[in-house]
Write a structure and sequence with these properties.
Layout (H helix, E strand, L loop, with lengths): L21 H13 L4 H10 L4 H16 L6 H4 L5 H9 L11
Helix pairs in contact: 1-2, 1-3, 2-3
Amino acid sequence: QKLFDPNFSTLPENEIQSTGYVISTLEAVVWCFLNTENYKDAVLKAVNLGSDTDTIAALTGGLAGLYYGYDTIPEKWINQIAAPKMINKILGRINPQEKFIPW
């Protein structure tokens, strides 16, 4: 129900739970997204919530990536991706015309 509260985005950070519980995860991801204005800040806010940071940041990054676009992901972060050729190969099965990671 928190997500449907018109004041949800103004909740203070200490009221956002970033546990592995699925409802808390959804709330944390949406809250991080609503309280930032770009991909990098959204992901960093998710990480800085603490607790289940890998899950919250991954999902926040997915949402922010869809909204802000691939080109807004910091190049330094992209260059740290492990096994980019394998990722491109797997994702290429979904859309053979697209190169997802630029190398």
